[in-house]
What does this fold into?
Amino acid sequence: MAPRDGYADRMLRLVALLSLALLACAAPAAAQTPIHRCIGANGGAVFTDQPCAALRATPVNPATPTDTPAPSGPPPVLCAANIEELRQSVIDAFARRDSVRMGGLILWDGYGRGAAIADIRALTALMEQSLLQVDLPAPAASAAALPDNWPPLAGDPAPAATAAPDQLVLHTAGADGAGSTWRFDIVRRAGCLWLRNAP
It folds into this structure.
């Protein structure tokens, strides 16, 4: 057997050390299980290594892109600039059963913690129902169409016979077929139209 020179020994040791280092880095990553973020039945946050469904909890993280097909059509309107955009955003949220999107259309300022939690639970229950109709009743006796520039800009004359809707009314049906009516006030804030629970 031929004697090894010092360079070959050093290279062999270097390769062995690099291999051990790679194994040490890869082992913890392979051993880790994913952490699932869920909302428990009591409304509190739950972090677990089990799927949320195993704990009867709702997952917080959306499904990975490989689990869901790519959305078709235009992206959702994040800020409704007019009544029709607000109405269409509500319809789209129901079509996708997306309570987060519906919650994004609601003006939440001024809510206390308890009221917000109660309204979030009610909103989750609402989104489990089927949307039958969305009405925009006019506050005045005249139900004429809205002007294109509603609400009017400062200095514009107010239309005489047309009143802008001040509520959005949802007619829904539950799984048992029972119908419900949900009323939301329409509020303009920061250049957008928002929904607020009607008293």
